[in-house]
Amino acid sequence: MEPEQGSRRTADADRSGIGGPEVQDNTAYGGAAVTGTFGQACGIHGGARSHTEPAATVRQLLPAPPHFLGRERELGTLRRLVGRLPEAPVLAVISGPAGVGKTALASSWLRGLAQRFPDGQFYADLRGHSASGGPARPAEILAQFLRALGQRQTPQGLGELAALWRSRTAGRRIAVMLDNAVSAGQVRPLLPGTETGLVVVTSRFRLAGLAVDGAFFQQLEVLDTEDTVELLSRRIGSERVRREPEAARQVAALCAGLPLAVCVAAARMAVRPRQPLAAMALALGGEGGLDALRVEGEPAVRAALDASYRLLTPDLALGYRRLGISPVTDFGIRVAAAVCGTGPREADRIVDALAEVNLLEDLGPDPVTGLDRFRFHDLVRAHAGGLAAAHETSDDRRGTARRVVDLYLRTATAAEALLSPSHRTLRRDYASDDDQPPPFTDEAGALAWLDGERLHLMAVLRKAAGLGWDAAVWQLADAMWPLFLRLRPYDLWIEAHTAGLAAARRAGDREGESRMLTSGGTGLRNVGRHAEAVSWFTQAAEAARRERDRVAEAQALHGVGQTHRLAGRLAEARSFFGRALELRERAGYRRGVALTELCLGDVELAEGQPERAREHLSRARAVLLEVRDTHDAARALAHLARAHAGVGDFPLAVRELTRALGEFEASGSVHWQGRVLEMLGETAAERGQDAEARDWYEKSLARYASVSADDVRRLADRLGVADR
Predict the structure, then answer these.
(1) Cα-based distances in Å from 448 to 55, 441, 452, 482, 520
(2) For residue 121, what are the β-bridge partners?
(3) H or E stretch at 9
(4) Are 709 and 31 a contacting pair, CB within 8 Å?
(5) What phi, psi does 218 have (nearest 5°)?
(6) Is the distance from CB of 483 to CB of 449 less than 8 angstroms?
(7) CA-based, 20 to 30 A from 10: which of 144, 146, 253, 340?
(8) Cα separation of 99 and 108, whole Å?
(9) Which residues pair with 93 in a beta bridge?
(10) pLDDT digits 0-9 by tens, 587-623
(11) Could you give the angle at the alpha carbon of 89 between the alpha carbons of 84 and 93, nearest 5°?
(12) Where are the beta strands (DSSP E) in 411-531?
């Protein structure tokens, strides 16, 4: 495939090995999400007791605004609301025009109450008025909250996500801030399930529909003149205001009582201490005068932003415009450097300078990386984006987006190379020269980065799709494989590969199409969409046969076999595994042969043939260790241990299961930790040690709780049987 016009192709794949997305869970145990309560691994009903596991307390609230003032009447009303707790939950809706200080009021109020909500404090920007990307989907926010609670993998459907969120928060003292909501329908699924919690929603709309949910409504008006002047005085110094009281009142009036407008205007005056306040009043007056202030406040903000923008140096003005059109809405220095087309040091200077004049909000350190994060207020982002549209060429705007796409593609590819080196075989096409080092050096850091950036990765993928960068779309989906494999966000997995498949087909890229079909088929299979998975794998096999690519055909047949295995169709699974094994042996693909032998061993175990299983699994384990596929080697060891148990060698089975558990703990594979703990329980039960078996099952349940609802339900049923 030819690269986009004007791009620079870099073929940086390791072509020395033959690889691909092998399914990592090929037994009948599957699952998507979890059930349970906050701070617990799960809640088991029907006679079994609950299983608790400590969870880190969530602290996501924004910092309290440093110059918050006034609003005593509104704060008093809101404080009285908290008196309802713990007898009833509190839902407060703070509404008002853009820039009036809704977020500042809510943040200041909640920060003062933090000690009353020791079980968690959650924050989400619902992006109701975002200049790009549209409002946040409730499912996206629920997944974000659940991950903060330690939920490593979440269900797909909004209904299941909302139910899980209510379950995990039941009975807990939590505070939730939902910022920039656009509708009651966007908010309602995000309401927690606790009677002792507080939810505060900010919106430009009144959201009257939340009345049926028991909401209290606080309409926030603009500041009066005295408070506006006082805010201005705090920002620029009381002495300047005393020297020019009339000019100060004129500036306050022109800012229409909007704190955002005051802060932006004051920031410009603060860095020019000799400039008369009358000059700012003149700049804010501008064309249209006071009449322009009658349109819900936004023109006042725009006037302040225009005045502030005019005083920026050319490099800061350029950075402001470009950051306004970044595909991601909050960002660190690495993204800022890509956006601005500079090195990190220069980007740091630009971001600091824009934050200093209140054009950027400092969000504090990222909870995963610890690096500083920034964002625009939605009005400021819209203003910057409008200036970019007016002053940047179409090529410049596309170049800005492409540098961010390439940054995420490069970084995700570096994570993939660390976490799934056998999968890292396909080419990457970059259109920009910037090659920043990744913000991680080991597997744990790479997985943490993928986890923390998953929504930004998807935003970038969608942006690439919208701009027609087909190669970047399927390559991003491909690079995100370790995220999908280890953390299993199935909704993102399937969305990314659906988009990637369409992009690869538009581009006529056969390698990309094959990879999207097999990787995407894996996701479809793991969520139980077996018919669709078989269809995707079959399409991949047919295309491979046309291309006479035996390795790709074997991989697709292997995927069909795994789908049948998960569906419980053992004879069909054996047939497809046998065909895949023959092709892989003929191609000399040793790792592929070992993976298929692993699957055949699993089938033999399911059919009650442990001796035959041991032969397959022993060979698989040895080869996988030789090719340094430690994750799959650990899988082979776990199944091999169960085969040992099947022939009565229980001590060896326990030793090897314990060893496999340690290997999965080292790799961070939580789902397989749960699987091995369950296998230890099965082994104990087969020896008649019911109490020990129950102990292992409970430990297994604690691991499954964050990754697989199906396994939680299945194992909960097993514990119920054990009780009898």
Answers:
(1) 17, 11, 6, 11, 22
(2) 59, 175
(3) strand 8-10
(4) yes
(5) -120, 105
(6) no
(7) 340
(8) 16
(9) 201, 217
(10) 999 999 999 999 999 999 999 999 999 999 999 999 9
(11) 95
(12) 428-430
